[in-house]
Write a structure and sequence with these properties.
Its EC number is 1.1.1.22. Pfam families: UDPG_MGDP_dh (PF00984), UDPG_MGDP_dh_C (PF03720), UDPG_MGDP_dh_N (PF03721). The protein contains 18 helices and 14 strands. It has 3 domains: 197 residues, 3-Layer(aba) Sandwich (Rossmann fold), CATH 3.40.50.720; 82 residues, N-(1-d-carboxylethyl)-l-norvaline Dehydrogenase, domain 2 (Orthogonal Bundle), CATH 1.10.1040; 134 residues, 3-Layer(aba) Sandwich (Rossmann fold), CATH 3.40.50. It starts with a strand and ends in an 8-residue tail after the last strand. It has 437 residues and is α/β, with parallel strands linked by helices. The strands form 3 sheets. Strands 3-2-1-4-5-6 form a 6-stranded parallel sheet, sandwiched between helices. Strands 11-10-9-12-13-14 form a 6-stranded parallel sheet. It has a two-stranded parallel ribbon with strand order 7-8. Bound molecules: uridine-5'-diphosphate-glucuronic acid. Uridine-5'-diphosphate-glucuronic acid (UGA) binds next to helix 9 and helix 11.
């Protein structure tokens, strides 16, 4: 299959490289010349484990190329994916569809022969209809079918998620697009993979409903964590207990400082707006959003409490800045709510993150950055674990304690075993574990 991927950002690049790796002929398009030049030179502009190897290998094999020339890429493609950004519209939280609409108009002008246009960007319900309308209006003779094929990639695990997905959702309105897309994904087929063909609108909703449900699961366990703290229980035991019920499942039940990232906060907000627009309010999603924002803001007060009621003049070491491990992404990261609140309280903050410090320094310019977790902890009154990077699990606790002024730890991800930390002489606060009242 000859595939054009419009948009060489996170989703486009991962999808394009993976589709090339399973044997398709893929050209990734972007209007950002610097990005395309870098990719042509084998330099991947984002941090995603394994992506650089995949890009170079497939480019060398001649299955993957990069261009700013949308017209020629589309003209020679059987399938055109739209994987452009859909950021939150300034002010109102609706998804901004201007890139999607302009891609549709450009595709309409360039398409030659039968072309399946596939929406991979996360778009509100009805966008497939709108894209089809735009294409037919710009070029009434275009021979196209429009499909919806949402992505379920997690940052940091995106290549595995693409190549070994739980399910592939394909929303189509005609048999021809269905046959073509079945062929695109045929190389990924294996025993337990479910391919679900749905209507276009159902596929669009499946994407938002999936993210909203996962966000709700996290907000739920975070609220249960607070309840465990008050009532003298342990949220990790509770999560394990409820997760053993196959109807609930064990995943996404890790209590923490609230979810962040480029997807859950943006998509839940856009979903809420959609509900309002269609006059069918999504109240659970609305509450999830509000509860999560509140949670991120509340986290700093745990640090204040661990420091005896005030952080004024105290040195606080922050371990982990990104919204989760294995990414350099700082978007909507809990650290962005916690650190400013600590600074407001008069703290002196020294932070360390294995990948996120460049990004973080643009957003939080007034704190210090250290070259390692131990260096951040030097002279600290309190260490706060904000992101559960694997390297923190193997920290030498004796050296950590020796580096600090006073051995106080607030572990917002339950990385450490409280008993072990106590044995090393730390005053330890985790999430969701309280003494009986
Ligand atoms: C999420 C979804 O998991 C993907 O399926 C989806 O494709 C993607 O959004 C998207 O829409 O593009 P991602 O944002 O990369 O992926 O990150 P997740 O691994 O889902 O984590 C999101 C946030 O939830 C992180 O801040 C993480 O720390 C938090 N989280 C996750 C918890 O606090 N507890 C958990 O149990 C799980």
């Amino acid at each position: 299959m000859r595939i054009a991927m419009i948009g060489s950002g996170y989703v486009g690049l991962v999808s394009g490289a993976c589709l090339a790796d399973v044997g398709h002929d893929v050209v990734c398009v972007d209007f950002d010349e610097a990005k395309i030049e870098a990719l042509q030179a084998g330099v991947v502009p984002i941090f995603e484990p394994g992506l650089d190897i995949l890009v170079v290998r497939n480019a060398e094999a001649g299955r993957l190329s990069f261009t700013t020339d949308l017209s020629s890429a589309v003209a020679s493609a059987d399938v055109v994916f739209i994987a452009v950004g859909t950021p939150s519209q300034q002010g109102d939280g609706h998804a901004d569809l201007s890139y999607v609409h302009s891609a549709a108009a450009s595709i309409a002008e360039a398409a030659k022969g039968f072309t399946v246009v596939v929406l991979k960007s996360t778009v509100p319900v009805g966008t497939g209809d709108e894209v089809e309308r735009i294409i037919r209006q710009v070029n009434p003779r275009a021979e196209i079918a429009v499909a919806s094929n949402p992505e379920f990639l997690r940052e940091g695990a995106a290549i595995n998620d693409f190549k070994r997905p739980d399910r592939i959702v394909i929303g189509v309105e005609d048999d021809w697009a269905r046959t073509v897309l079945a062929q695109v994904y045929r190389p990924l087929r294996r025993d337990r993979l479910q391919v679900q063909f749905t209507s276009r609108r159902s596929a669009e909703i499946i994407k938002y409903a999936s993210n909203a449900f996962l966000a709700m699961k996290i907000a739920f366990i975070n609220e249960i964590a607070d309840f465990c703290e008050t009532t003298g229980a342990d949220v990790q035991e509770v999560a394990r207990g409820i997760g053993m019920d196959a109807r609930i499942g064990p995943k996404f039940l890790h209590a923490g400082p609230g979810y962040g990232g480029s997807c859950f906060p943006k998509d839940t907000l856009a979903f809420v707006r959609m509900g309002q627009d269609f006059g069918s309010p999504l109240r659970l999603v609305e509450t999830t959003l509000a509860v999560n924002e509140q949670r991120k803001r509340n986290m700093a007060s745990r640090v204040v409490a661990a420091c005896g009621g005030s952080v004024r003049g105290r040195r606080i070491a922050i371990l982990g800045l990104t919204f989760k491990p294995n990414t350099d992404d700082m978007r909507a990261a809990p650290a962005l709510a916690i650190i400013p609140a600590l600074l407001d309280g008069g703290a002196i903050v020294n932070a360390y993150d294995p990948q996120g410090m460049h990004e973080a320094s643009l957003l939080l310019p007034s704190i210090d950055y250290a070259e390692s977790a131990l260096a951040a902890a030097e002279g600290a009154d309190c260490v706060v674990v904000v992101t559960e990077w694997a390297e923190f699990r193997s920290l030498d606790l004796r050296s950590l304690k020796a580096a600090m002024k006073s051995p106080v730890m607030v572990d917002l991800r339950n990385v450490f075993d409280p008993a072990k930390l106590a044995a090393y002489g730390f005053a330890y606060t985790g999430i969701g574990c309280g003494a009986a009242p």
